[in-house]
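Priority: low. Protein: IFT20 protein. Input follows.
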Amino acid sequence: AMAQAALGAAGLHFDELNKLRVLEPEVAAQTAQLREECRAFVDKTAEFQKIVGSLIELVDQLAKAAESEKMKAIGARNRLKSIAKQREAQEQQLQALIAEKKMQLERYRIEYETLCKIEADQNEFIDQFIFQK
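Result:
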């Protein structure tokens, strides 16, 4: 015990296997435990980084998919707008054509009435000419 105290004063200690050590057995045990905890912490940190990495990858994929869908939606909206404009232009052309045909119909109606009047006048003239004979 006295020898152990003298060695302890010199900073030397015996472990549980009676090997001579520089560290106190308790300090050595705490150091080993700390080393294990650190190793576990490093492992957990690496696992966490891996999870975070895959999460970031997933979020990037979702962002790309969302961007792609947004572009598709914008394209579809633009196509619909252009179709609507085409329809509007077609409708205006048809309205103009209808107006033109109505005017043409009115001209023909007036022309027909005029011809009917001329025919009536000519028939009347023919009738008078026949009765004069």
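The mean pLDDT is 90. Residues 4 and 13 are 7 Å apart (CA to CA).
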